[in-house]
Amino acid sequence: MAYTKPIPDPEEYLNKPFWDGCKEGRLMLPRCEDCNRVHFYPRVLCPYCHSDRIDWIEASGEGYIHTYAVQHRAFGGYADETPFVTAFIDLKEGDRMLTVLRGVDPLKPEDIKIGAKVRVEFEAASDEVSIPFWRVVE
Amino acid sequence: MPSNPSMSAAIVGAAESNKIGFIEEGTTATRLHLEAINNVCKQTGIKPSEIDGVFSAGFSPQLGEHLGIHPKYLDTTAVGGASFVLHVHHALAAINAGIIDVALISHGEAGFSARKNRGNGTNRAGADDKWSVGNQFEVPYGIAGQPSNYAHAMTRHMHQFGSRKEDFAQIAVTTRDWATLNPRAVMHSKETHPFGGPITVQDVMDSRLIAWPLSLLDCCLVTDHGGAVLIASAEKARSLRTAPVWIAGAGESMSHWSMLEMEDFTATSARASSNTAYKMAGMGPGEMEMAMIYDSFTVTAGITAEMLGLTPRGEGPSLWADGKAGPGGSGIPVNTNGGGLSFSHSGMYGMMLLVEVYRQLSGTAEDGINGLPGKQVEAKTAVVNGTGGALSTTGTLVLVADD
């Protein structure tokens, strides 16, 4: 079935290793070679120490729910999927990502646990682009 | 007395991006900005963390976020190619006033690469740049508009402090009570809107969900609105027929631009901006006799009340509890126009805060403020806070009525 929701047009410089990784089913994150901290989204300069020596690491694909919301109103392809849960994920390696959270019931928001463990998975939205999503695993 | 800004500041460094010209491999405006900033910091030995004012043609909060800094002065004056020369003028004024020490003026424009990049990577205001942080990492997850963002802050507040949806609902109820006294408020009465007039906590709880935990009545209106204010020197102000409202303190700050970079979902830079404003005014939150707090959502107002020091941490909604902040309430009056929730909110509500606080503190209430005879509140002092973006940027004012 065709993917009807917004498909990112991968930025071809800073974000390229990230989107290339997604296509291979690998979560790649930028890490500063000077202070060793991981950041997300990708930067020209490390947001912590301002070094321009940024490398990429393959992440564990594990994280935890930092906070969440249930979207009852959305646009484009997402309009057909309401209600759905969005969440900010604390990455095991540090910093955060946003996701549509999988493995939860959007009609029972009180049952979703902040701090619950999540794991990344990838959905091929097109031949060129795969998008990472996070699923509750406990 | 104002001091002459002449010679009060100097340009101390100037640098360019690593590459300029026809960059065949392509680049983006963001990269060009950041390379130049990196180079000028290395040239001068000034660390990015020492930059306390960011000036650019429309991209300043994003640059602050890229650098991971929390500047206390943001200027995005974009008036075409001359913008950067004007930025020097504005920076001079801010430095002369003692508000900032180090101003960054930054330019990054991928005029050549834009073609290769199919129009992306330009950071141009208003353009739907597919390479913006939002379009890369937020829009693919159905985030559209601020309710979808702000709801995450409310969930986290409820988790962290045990606050309840009902506590935030009371903010909407009390704010509506003010709107029922303001004939210009959209939600004044059944005459102004089919759903106007007083509401209850249960009404808020029962209204349809927009982005749980936010229900419809937790969200501001979307209206048409225009406003303007004039600010004059003290001397000029005293010569006019209108009553002056004195600017005792002012501050601004930012914590992030994208919600991806909001470190603490229960706190905003209103803490920093109000600290600056209170310090300039020589006053504290306990001396504020009314408050105008940006209420794009009930959660915005609740969190901001904490940041302004009007309630203890984690207890923001208590400012409104039992209608305390409403007409005739036992606390300080808050959002006396009926707020963005029930008066009017066109998308950028900050101007409406200013118009209302001027009317209240100048006593023009007596001339028919909001169409009503008589002064509404006795306040002689007010704290005003505006929040922008995704709980990103804030400005705080401490205003004082004329004697």
Structure characterization notes:
The complex is a heterodimer of chains A (138) and B (403). With 138 residues, chain A is mostly beta strands. Chain A has one domain (16-136): OB fold (Dihydrolipoamide Acetyltransferase, E2P) (Beta Barrel), CATH 2.40.50. Chain A is built from 1 helix and 7 strands; from the N terminus they run αβββββββ. Chain A has one helix spanning 16-23, and strands spanning 28-32, 54-58, 62-71, 84-91, 96-102, 117-124, 130-136. In chain A, the strands form 2 sheets. A 5-stranded mixed beta barrel of chain A has the order 3-4-5-7-6. The longest helix of chain A has 8 residues, at 16-23. Chain A starts with 15 loop residues before the first helix and ends with a strand. The model of chain A has no long low-confidence stretch (mean pLDDT 97). Chain B has 403 residues and is α/β, with parallel strands linked by helices. In chain B, helix 2 links the parallel strand 1 and strand 2 (73-75). In chain B, helix 7 (165-179) packs across helix 11. Chain B is globular, with a radius of gyration of 22 Å. Chain B has a 4-stranded mixed beta sheet, sandwiched between helices. Chain B has a 3-stranded parallel beta sheet with strand order 2-1-3, with helices on both faces. A two-stranded antiparallel sheet of chain B has the order 4-5. Chain B folds into 2 domains: 29-131, 3-Layer(aba) Sandwich (Peroxisomal Thiolase, Chain A, domain 1), CATH 3.40.47.10; 175-401, Peroxisomal Thiolase, Chain A, domain 1, CATH 3.40.47. Chains A and B meet through strand 3, strand 4 and strand 5 of A and helix 1, helix 2, helix 5, helix 6 and strand 4 of B. Strand 3 of chain A pairs antiparallel with strand 4 of chain B, so a sheet runs across the interface.
